[in-house]
Design a protein that fits this description.
Blueprint lengths: L3 E12 L7 E12 L3 E5 L6 H8 L7 E6 L2 E2 L6 H7 E4 L12 H11 L4 H14 L15 H13 L5 E5 L7 H16 L3 E5 L11 E6 L2 E6 L1 H4 L3 H6 L6 H11 L11 H16 L1
Parallel strand pairs: 3-8, 3-9, 6-7, 7-8
Antiparallel strand pairs: 1-2, 1-4, 4-5, 9-10
């Protein structure tokens, strides 16, 4: 059975300026995203990451090609709400996504606009806030919260729409390390619950628990594979102006010094265990 939830065929998107030449932000992109998967998309600034996210959410429409979300064509105006209910989007700046003066009202906004009955809205608000561990802030004003807490409220607002897909468009770019960790923990939790996650990021470490990593460069797919496969291409990554995640860089450095570190380690804890076991073997 085909469990593809996003199908992109020869997608080209061109920005047309009045005083400058048109720019192809995306150039003949083709890919399929499986339902329930977690995919990270990375690349330098200007590589087309955010444009791809907006194309999936029908915020921009293809210049050429097509984008299907759960079978709905983003060019079909009659299906825009179906697409945006299916694929919720969390933006870089949470302030741009918060619309009300009270957290509870903010979460009710989306479901109210699609005609969800009031009694169901109350249930969705409670469930969504519990999912992001923010129930105690239900009556607070969003502007009184920290950046990380605001982003969690923005995620809860998307969850209240009951999406099958959540697109994270660089949601941690404006957060401190603690806030970034909190948001990524929530993304991992939602993935385990069966939601399809598409994570657009420039933090390499945020990609390591993904099923798949796609690297964009100048609007095209430069690399596509599992984290282990993609991050084994260190020379290719360097040519694209990207650095390896720290844990992989450290493992590579230890191997270069003659230490017997297995390939494919993507987790700091696993690397530390290998280092400790090396020490034990040498001691013995």
């Amino acid at each position: 059975m085909n469990n593809t939830i996003i199908n992109i065929e020869n997608l080209t998107f061109e920005y047309n300026g009045h005083d400058v030449e048109s720019v192809k932000a995306l150039n003949k992109i083709s890919l399929e995203i499986k339902k329930g998967s977690k995919t990270s998309i990375i690349g330098r600034n200007g590589s087309g990451k955010s444009t791809l996210a907006k194309a999936i959410n029908a915020l921009v429409l293809p210049t050429e090609g097509r984008v299907l979300v759960a079978g709905f064509d983003t060019r079909d105006e009659d299906r825009i709400w179906d697409i945006r209910k299916t694929a919720g989007m969390v933006f870089q700046n949470p302030d741009n996504q918060l619309v009300s003066a009270v957290v509870e009202d903010d979460l009710a906004f989306g479901p109210e606009n699609i005609g969800v009955p009031p009694e169901q809205i109350r249930v969705r608000i409670r469930e969504s806030l519990e999912s992001v561990d923010m129930m105690e802030h239900i009556k607070m004003a969003p502007h009184m919260l920290s950046g990380g807490q605001k982003q969690r409220i923005a995620i809860a607002g998307v969850l209240a729409m009951h999406p099958d897909i959540i697109i994270f468009d660089e949601p941690t770019a404006m957060l401190d390390p603690e806030g970034r960790h909190e948001v990524m923990e929530i993304a991992a939790k939602l993935h385990k619950e069966g939601i399809t996650i598409l994570n657009i990021t420039h933090f390499m470490e945020e990609t390591l628990d993904s099923d798949r990593v796609i690297i964009l460069d100048r609007g095209r797919i430069a690399l596509d594979g599992t984290p282990a496969e993609v991050f084994s291409e260190s020379e290719k990554l360097a040519s694209l102006g990207l650095k390896l995640p720290f844990v992989i860089e450290l493992a590579n450095g230890l191997r270069a010094k003659g230490f017997d570190i297995p390939q494919g380690i993507l987790d700091e804890t696993a690397l530390m265990e290998e280092i400790c076991s090396l020490g034990g073997r040498h001691a013995g």
